[in-house]
């Protein structure tokens, strides 16, 4: 096998005509990988993605070949995938106002060129989900782009299909999560093109790293929500005096590690309806 890409929290290997995507227990905040691991994180995200790929199979093909035909040392945290030509756009769906979407709304009244009603606050539910794409930055931060930028990047036909798929996948996922007491405030997807030109869902999907998950019973517009995702450790890191959000990141204390892992496991269990157990 050949290591072809080492990301912040995942590595990608070429294995014959396939790819192996391997998730680690690393966690990144503000694009900085922290030095402390979150036990089971890679396995939880991998297994949750696999569960979601199954739930979404009727909407769009995905890149999964096998979750078991992987080297034993990566069991549970690796997926054998199809090779795709990845599209250079982060496809983000938002159903609620939070994070960078909230910042953009406060500054311009819109996100990615999509105007929103006046008077919304942090945590507000949007009238309908919106497609708010960003660049896929190789360095620095992703930047909001509007739909015309997506059309210019990938063509009008593919852009329209990316928007349709993003909103349809989000809506399906949000309905499933709502039945389990979880709000998916926003999420991002990555897509690639198969050899026949078909659009394929890739990477991870609807995980605590790629989505904002909130407890529906505790949702109160007008401020921060109870997070069941990576925002918990992101907020903790913001309390570290003197850290300028540049490497090296701060060490994470054991109680924060435990609380972060507990949130990952909780959202897995609530969504899938099964108790988290180590997947070897």
Question: Would you mind describing this structure in some detail?
Answer:
The protein is of the alpha+beta class. It folds into 2 domains: 83 residues, Phosphorylase Kinase, domain 1; 134 residues, 2-Layer Sandwich (D-amino Acid Aminotransferase, Chain A, domain 1). It is built from 6 helices and 16 strands. Strands 8, 9, 12, 13, 14, 15 and 16 form a 7-stranded antiparallel beta sheet that branches. β10 and β11 form a beta hairpin. α3 packs across α4. The longest helix is centred in the middle third of the chain and has 23 residues. The radius of gyration is 18 Å and the shape is globular. The two termini are 21 Å apart. The mean pLDDT is 94.
Topology diagram in text:
Layout: E1 2-6, E2 10-15, E3 18-23, E4 28-29, E5 32-33, H1 41-56, E6 64-66, E7 78-81, E8 85-86, E9 89-96, H2 99-108, E10 110-111, E11 114-115, E12 125-131, E13 134-135, H3 147-154, H4 156-178, E14 182-193, E15 199-202, E16 211-215, H5 231-237, H6 254-272
Antiparallel strand pairs: 1-2, 2-3, 3-7, 4-5, 6-7, 8-14, 9-12, 9-13, 9-14, 10-11, 14-15, 14-16
Helix pairs in contact: 1-6, 3-4
């Amino acid at each position: 096998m050949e290591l072809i890409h080492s990301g912040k929290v995942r590595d990608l290997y070429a294995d014959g005509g396939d790819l192996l995507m391997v998730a680690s227990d690393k966690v990144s905040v503000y694009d900085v990988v922290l030095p402390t691991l979150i036990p089971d994180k890679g396995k939880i995200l991998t297994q949750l993605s696999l569960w979601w790929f199954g739930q979404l199979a009727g909407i769009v093909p995905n890149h999964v070949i096998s979750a078991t035909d992987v080297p034993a040392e990566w069991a549970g945290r690796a997926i054998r995938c199809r090779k795709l030509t990845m599209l250079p756009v982060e496809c983000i769906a938002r159903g609620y106002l939070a994070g960078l979407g909230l910042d953009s709304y406060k500054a311009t009244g819109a996100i990615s060129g999509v105007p929103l009603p006046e008077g919304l606050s942090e945590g507000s539910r949007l009238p309908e989900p919106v497609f708010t794409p960003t660049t896929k930055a190789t360095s620095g931060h992703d930047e909001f782009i509007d739909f015309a930028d997506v059309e210019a990047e990938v063509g009008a036909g593919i852009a329209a299909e990316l928007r349709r798929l993003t909103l349809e996948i989000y809506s399906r996922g949000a309905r499933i999560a709502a039945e389990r007491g979880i709000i998916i405030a926003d999420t991002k997807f990555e897509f690639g093109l198969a050899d026949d030109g078909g659009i394929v869902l890739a990477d991870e999907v609807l995980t605590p790293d790629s989505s904002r998950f909130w407890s529906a019973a505790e949702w109160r517009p007008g401020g921060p929500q109870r997070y069941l995702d990576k925002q918990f450790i992101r907020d903790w890191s913001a309390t570290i005096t003197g850290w300028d959000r540049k490497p090296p990141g701060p060490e994470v204390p054991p109680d924060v590690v435990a609380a972060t892992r507990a949130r990952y496991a909780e959202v897995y269990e609530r969504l899938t309806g099964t108790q988290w157990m180590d997947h070897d």
